[in-house]
Amino acid sequence: MTSKVSFFKMVKSECTRRLWLLTILAVLFAGALPVAGLMQLQRYDPSGYEIIEEEAAPSDAANVREERRIQEIRESMEEIVGKNNSAVSCITLAGALLAGISGFAYLHSRKKTDLFHSIPVRRERLFLVQQTSGFILYLLPLLGAYLLALLVGAIKGALWAGTWLAALKGLAFQILSFFLAYETVVLGMMLTGKLLVAVLGIVVLFGYFPATAAILDTYMNFFRTYIGSGKLLWRWLEYLTPLYPLYWADQTAGSAWALLIFLLAGALLMGASLLLYRIRRTEAAEQSMAFPRSQAVIKWLLVLPFSLAGGIIMSQVAMREDSLWMFFGILVGVVLISGIVEVVYSYDFRRAFSHRIQMLLMAVLALGVGSIFRFDLLGYDTWLPGEDQVESMAVSSWRWTSDNSYWEAEGNDFRYQDRSEYLLEHMKITDFEGLYQMAREGAESTRSEYGNSGDKSYICIRYNLKNGSTAERQYEVSDETLDTAMEQLVCTREYQEAAYQILTLEPQIYREMSVRDRFDKRMAYEEEQELIQEVVEAYREDLRAQELESWKRAEFLGILNLTAGREAWKAEWAYPIDSTFTHTLEALENMGIQLLPLAQESVSQIRVIDYASNEELVISSPEEIQELLPLLEQERNGWGGYEIQQENLGFRVIREEENQEVYAYLQEDAQLPEFFAARLDKN
């Protein structure tokens, strides 16, 4: 027969038994939300609030100061109650561990298991009682802390619609994070019969799949053409961990789909735990594994990837990429990990090396997998898709990429993105003959141990195939081949719209603009939207009108800095201005900003560095400066690296005002003035 005791009375009794957990979480959440929030918002009290004023403070500085204070206190409040509060996330994770272990610890004691199972209730009901009590013990202190934090925000005047929305998102995120981690802990308790083994099992469940992905990714580095950011089949393993929500919250602005996935994953884990609880034998208590048939499967899953990790560790200890050391490390890993697993299973050191045939098979398979990566048995490096299979291509090269940042818009915020990843993702070159030939040269060079000879550069290539798949490779190619291929692309629409975000982002998103000259002196700072949009539109027009030959001869003049987004999540871009940007220069002149060529700068000194003799020659005569200055160039055009035409000489051009200086180089085919050559020979 079954007991008629109310489900809610059972939950209440269980919560009372574990009241210590509620107390601990209440103290921790109170410190992380209302107390920490009060301390953080205290900085924005009108009496103590200070901001760094701009160079030219507006006449209504008091109003600007108050608006800035209100904006920052609201943003700070959103961070406190939002999903990016790392302190609350850590407490949530700790709460899941404590709730899961304490709620089902009776399964690891025969006496307690007999006691619980002697209660005349079905196992499903008993399972739900433990589950529900764990949730309540977590939710009550969390909700209380959130309410107190919002009360603090109301007192400090930091509540508005955005705060409530951030609080709802943050609360939902923390609950789902707890649900996912909690169910993982419960699953670990169900699979094991000893507390120590349960803790080890929980660690494995939390980190196994990301660790396996990291090990495979490390082995991929044996391939010379491998790009770490590439899309590979096992990359999805990185997401199979209860810790992933923490990474997700830090990297993205938020997605309802992701929250739904967390909910479904937690529900699946809960269903799996319930199923295991129904079929779990009472005698499984105080045994290492509750289900003996799972032991062999778990052993194989542990030994194979972590023995490969042993090969990497041994290579690192030996400080050389030697195949023998790697394979020796793999063998040691197989023996050690297999032995440790057997000891954990049996609690008997004498059984560490039982199942020797199984260990031998593991060693053979692990060595085979290691050989595939070490010797490229599958031809990863030399692989090249057929030209007729490619729909479009993308390329990224430091030699031909401006020193700029790339950002992805996510709502009102921006997320920084790696330069190569962004370019490969957004560039779609359909006329790719030059790129394909360059990739062919790179693939062929991998057949040689030392690759191409002469000056070389690395490039990243993405193949967008007609079947919908993509492939990415890194190649080493000669600078001559790279320059030839890139000169065909830099002025095309497909390349520019991927490489320069100013062409694709709406001008209205920018809230700040500043201009700096070649000496890095700020010439202007502007927040007026109309003026910012005027300069941005002029810059876009100049960039689209670029022609290769004029672009190659252009002189770098300054930098256009643009800012978008909120203060805490702002994105910044820096675009070079060269002498071909006539519309941009005209728009800046209308604002009273003039960027001068190097030959027209007010220079007080030119210090010449002779790298051959390691001596310095100082030129301070105005006549000599005027004769030498037109022969120098600071950069090719601001879009790439320096063009050093005179390898033995470097020039430091020092401006009169504020003693600012830049480095310059002798122009191609420029003849040294007689006075300079004579003084150089004399030295």
UniProtKB/TrEMBL annotation:
Domain of life: Bacteria
InterPro entries the UniProt entry points to: DUF6449
Residue intervals passing through the bilayer: 86-107, 135-155, 161-183, 195-216, 256-277, 297-318, 324-345, 357-375
UniProt keyword list: Membrane, Transmembrane, Transmembrane helix
Pfam families documented for this protein: DUF6449
Residue span, DUF6449 domain: 463-552
Protein name: Tetraspanin family protein
